[in-house]
Specification:
With 111 residues, the chain is mainly beta. It has a single domain, classed as Immunoglobulins (Immunoglobulin-like, Sandwich). Helices cover 5% and strands 49% of the residues. A hairpin with a 3-residue loop joins strand 3 and strand 4.
Length: 111
């Protein structure tokens, strides 16, 4: 599945996601933590991540919906380049599952 993302440096960015697992089963993410991480290389430590966002307040948790929001100040700090990102969910029992991993491109804004 293609989950490549892109955004313009210095823009506010919103992505609405529906969290699913095997066979596109929607996950009730009530009380879940969703982590969005951008790294230069997959082998980089979490401490060396380009950006890390933790989401605990979801738009429609029983239907697996959450929003990842990057502010202008978040995206302005990231150099124009292509990176790797993932989205992990942590359930009530601290079980961690990676639900998406792909590339993310930061584009140069013209204005």
């Amino acid at each position: 599945m293609n989950n490549e993302l892109s955004f313009y440096k210095g823009d506010d960015v919103y992505w609405q996601l529906t969290i699913t697992i095997e066979n596109d089963t929607i996950v009730d993410i009530t009380d879940y933590i969703v982590n969005f991480t951008i790294k230069k290389y997959a082998t980089d430590s979490d401490n060396d991540a380009i950006l890390k966002k933790t989401i605990t307040d979801h738009s429609d948790p029983t239907n697996g919906k959450t929003v990842i929001y990057l502010t202008k100040s978040d995206t302005d700090k990231i150099a124009v380049n292509t990176y790797i990102y993932d989205i992990q969910i942590t359930d009530k029992n601290d079980k961690v599952t990676t639900v998406i991993k792909d590339t993310i491109e930061v584009l140069q804004d013209v204005t």
